[in-house]
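BUG-200 | component: ligand-complex export | severity: low

The export step for 5-O-phosphono-beta-D-ribofuranosylamine jobs runs without errors, but we want the raw record kept on the ticket for reference. Input record follows.
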Amino acid sequence: MSTSDPRPAIAVLCSGGGSNLQALIDRTATGELPARIAWVLSNNGGAGALERARTAGIPAYHVSGKTEGSPEAAEARLISLIREHGIRVLVLAGYMKALPTSVIRELPGRVVNIHPALLPAFGGRGMYGHHVHEAVLARGAQWTGVTIHLLSEAYDEGPILRQRVVAVRPGDTPESLGARVLVVEHDTLWREIRSLLERT
Ligand code: GRF
């Protein structure tokens, strides 16, 4: 895929509403994140993230084991999209599927995930979306936050790039806490992608 755009290409995998994707779209538009989003891919054809991509004129792909006929075919499609567009950094922003190790090997040290808690706390199986904030509150944690990390083949255990802390407030609900964490997510992910692009 040839393009005259000199900015490094990134791609974003989402399964949900895509507010983190939107933050990346906005920051590439202002130039604060000197990169272009070559495509957005979701395993969920109805994902709001795909709508956001289309609205921004970014190619939006619905790719899953179902759409491609098998998980292996979906994996091959993802790899070919990465190669075709010369993706420098792959960003998981609310992507609910396990990423095949072949993809992590394709982009060593350049697959980034964002998690709405301070890993290793409140991570791992079942810890996504509001479940994370429910667990933080149920445990009585006084602090939570955002983790940006590289994906290793052991998934949530890749090297941590950045963490930012968010205080838990008396009376917080999973919704109120999640909303405050999300604001920090939106301000953090693009900065770590920029730094990663600068040093890779
Ligand atoms: C975010 O909280 C992110 O940390 C987690 O999934 C959520 C995605 O939200 N991995 P959105 O689709 O970006 O709004």
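Assignee comment: Attached the raw record above. Strands lie at 9-14, 36-42, 60-62, 87-92, 111-115, 143-150, 160-167.
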